[in-house]
Amino acid sequence: MKTVYFSVLLLCTICCTSFNDTTNDWVLKKYGNGVAVYNREVPGNTIKELKAVTQLKTTLSSIITLLEDRETYPEWVYKCGKSYQVKKISESDGIYYQNVLAPWPVDNRDFVVLVKVTQDRKTKVVSQTSKVIEGILPEVSGTVRVTEFNALWTLTPLENGMVNCEYQLLVNPGGSLPAWLINLAAIDGPYETTLNLRTWVFKDKYQKSHLSFIKEP
To answer: Considering the domain boundaries, does residue 181 fall inside one?
Structure first.
């Protein structure tokens, strides 16, 4: 059971506002080092939606530049084995591949996502959405291709140069793993990824970034 639990935890770290019409309250599941992780039930879905929240004193461009630097994901995104850009569509949109490592006997998972970045001109709130797109890359032998994946980063400017960062995730890793076990093991991935983001975003190459499609407050 311990091995299976750990395996499920890895699968739920595939890299969270709402993707569903639901009024269920968020439940705090973990807090520490400036990162809070919540989950909540989704009507008609046995898998719970996740949300990680933190606040940083940095720019909007620095965060988006880090999130779009996919080749670095194996270094800071929890249990990411490989990540790369498949196609650049525009300055703000692209298609990306990512895989998640899992210990034997559970198969690794992977997915291909269409990523879009938008910004509200009035509030300056930036949103980065990721959604599965099929038919782009062939499936990898011995790896389960995830077909249900929705992720959202919401970056809200605050006073004094602070940014509120919310990462929401609703994903079904597929396979035969039961929903109750997926829900039980799914907290640590968003926590560790968001915690690592708090450090990585302050590297020089991200702090010096100024994206033309992002307007700072």
So the answer is: yes
